[in-house]
UniProtKB/TrEMBL annotation:
Coarse class of the protein's main subcellular location: membrane
Gene Ontology cellular-component terms listed: plasma membrane
Pfam families reported for this sequence: Sulfatase
Swiss-Prot/TrEMBL keywords: Cell membrane, Membrane, Transferase, Transmembrane, Transmembrane helix
Keyword field contains Coiled coil: no
Gene: mdoB
Top-level taxon: Bacteria
GO molecular function (one): transferase activity
Transmembrane intervals: 38-56, 68-85, 114-135, 147-163
Organism: Halomonas beimenensis
Gene3D superfamilies: Alkaline Phosphatase, subunit A
InterPro entries noted in UniProt: Alkaline_phosphatase_core_sf, OpgB/LTA_synthase_biosynth, Sulfatase_N
Identification of the protein by name: Phosphoglycerol transferase I
SUPFAM superfamilies associated with the record: Alkaline phosphatase-like (SSF53649)
Length: 540
């Protein structure tokens, strides 16, 4: 007796293949859009209903499978790469991918993402096998899939971004941003320059201040802000959305455009980081400041150590130098030091610098809110209770409280007299447990200034992290040329910012076409000369 349709091997293979493709389609849809993850199953079900109605995988009687390889296998695999990146980081920034490949990714703490990459690779194998089966058994899919391959390539944001960067070399105006760049110059200097403490809080954006969505997670920073100047409206431009890019944007006044083909040794780590521009460290070093950087992660990751060493910093310390000094050597997370340990070393560093009798600047970078779940310190677990390992708001509250505690400790010791304190997120958060709430509306970075005689207040401007450099300089009592430095404008002045003049969308469009600013950043490292800029009114 022949097999019934319900038990025939072909029948079973058909529905296993279609189910695999439906689940893959659903996962892709909810990952690259803002659809809730609960939409995965309805999307997969809709695919199966459509497949049944059109009898996909059930060819007419008498047709036989063709042993062909689909043209769409490579485009599908590239979509797998893009979905992995979107699942890991939320918004995929190609600039971050290129820069990390060139600057070096050794000693990173993203072991969870390596595991995810392995799982994604394994998951793609049945997807590719299912699609191959469908194309071989169904002649209609064999006819259509070549066109599908072209659609998949054209629609992949990863390849679209590559195409845009490639088109920049033939764009009509690839120097629009470079013509608006103003080299940082200090026209006046205070008689007694203040010290500077910069606290970069990993991914701790000001969006978390919305109590309706996030409760009191941001409350410790809000309390600090009431004592100083809080700036609202700090948006994120492209090429400023990862740690090195965020620090370079706020210290150099320019987006971080990767070296790309300007780098002579394409497969070797960068020998220098943005050598063609002066940054905050260069300016303060020229004024006789003692400069120190402390971070919980390795300074060898993504060129952090090279950047700070190249731009005037005397002492650059990260996991490799700080971890051996811990009282408990095992009190580490996958990236490096917990924030309470980092801030203990920060206090020691400031005590050391204060004893020198010369102006100092200390820059720190926390790890506590690093996606996807953060690394809450032991001090917070004792204060906040058990951590479930997933809730980013727990880590946000922890990081905010530790930053406030550090400032209060330093004040109590008298170490912040004649000191400006800058508290800022290095960039907006990548994908975390609160992702849907974070992406409900416009987002903004944290930027708070305390001390040095600043009257408490609130500034609401449409700006970007490019504007932090001239703003900090003016808050310290320096006067940059025309209130400008790099592409930034002091938010303490009435000069309009680039975002106010042109909007984020237009600026991001210009970034995709820019070549001259890229060459300026890497002048001295690459082999292409920087073109002479055309005359332009920098206020336009």
């Amino acid at each position: 007796m022949p097999d019934s349709p319900d038990t025939a091997p072909v029948f079973r293979a058909r529905w296993w293949a279609l189910l695999t493709l439906g689940l893959a389609l659903g996962h892709t849809a909810v990952t690259v859009t803002r659809l809730p993850y609960a939409a995965l199953l309805p999307i997969a079900a809709g695919w199966l209903i459509l497949a049944k109605a059109l009898r996909w995988g059930a060819p007419p009687a008498g047709s036989s499978p063709a042993r062909v390889w689909p043209w769409s296998l490579v485009p599908l695999a590239l979509w797998g790469v893009y979905v992995y990146l979107a699942d890991s980081f939320g918004d995929v920034d190609l600039g971050a991918v290129f820069f990390h490949l060139q600057a070096g990714m050794s000693e990173h703490g993203g072991t969870d993402r390596i595991l995810a990459a392995i799982l994604y690779t394994l998951a793609m194998l049945p997807v590719l096998a299912a699609f191959t089966w469908l194309v071989r058994v169904d002649p209609r899919w064999r006819l259509a899939e070549r066109l599908l391959a072209l659609v998949l390539l054209a629609a992949n944001p990863l390849l679209y971004g590559l195409g845009q960067r490639g088109a920049a070399i033939v764009t009509e105006d690839g120097a629009w941003l470079d013509r608006r760049y103003v080299p940082p110059t200090l026209r006046t200097v205070p008689a007694e320059p203040p010290n500077l403490l910069v606290l970069y809080l990993e991914s701790l954006e000001r969006t978390y201040a919305d109590r309706e969505r996030f409760g009191d997670a941001y409350a410790p920073l809000a309390a600090l802000g009431r004592r100083g100047v809080v700036v609202e409206g700090i948006r994120q431009l492209d090429n400023t959305g990862w740690t090195m890019a965020g620090m370079i944007a706020s210290q150099c006044g320019t987006p971080l455009m990767p070296a790309g083909l300007l780098h002579d040794s394409q497969f070797e780590p960068l020998a220098r980081v943005v050598p063609g521009v002066d940054c905050l460290g260069d300016l303060l070093d020229a004024q006789g400041y003692r400069l120190s950087y402390l971070g919980g992660a390795s300074t060898r990751f993504a060129g952090k150590g090279r950047f700070y060493t190249d731009h005037g910093f005397d002492r650059v310390r990260g996991r490799e130098t700080l971890a051996p000094r811990l009282d408990e050597p095992d009190y580490l997370n996958s990236w490096g030091l917990y924030d309470d340990s980092l801030y203990d070393f920060t206090r020691e560093e400031i005590r050391h610098l204060e004893a020198q009798g010369t102006p100092w600047a200390v820059v720190t970078l926390s790890l506590g809110t690093h996606p996807p779940a953060g690394f809450p310190a032991r001090a917070c677990r004792e204060r906040q209770g058990a951590f479930d390992g997933e809730d980013i708001l727990y880590a946000v509250e922890c990081s905010a409280w530790l930053a406030r505690r550090l400032v209060e400790w330093l004040e109590a010791e008298g170490l912040l007299e004649d000191t400006l304190v800058m508290i800022a997120s290095d960039h907006l958060s990548m994908r975390v447990s609160a992702w849907e709430a974070l992406t409900e509306g416009p987002r903004e970075n944290t930027f708070i200034l305390l001390g040095n005689g600043l009257a408490p207040g609130r500034i609401v401007r449409e700006a970007s992290t490019l504007d932090l450099l001239p703003t900090v300089l003016e808050a310290m009592g320096f006067r940059p040329d025309r209130h400008r430095a790099g592409l930034g404008v002091s938010l303490l002045s009435d000069q309009p910012t680039l975002v106010e003049r042109h909007g984020l969308t237009a600026l991001n469009g210009r970034l995709k076409e820019e070549t001259a600013l890229q060459q300026r950043l890497w002048e001295g490292l690459g082999h292409l000369p920087r073109p002479e800029p055309k005359a332009v009114n920098p206020n336009r």
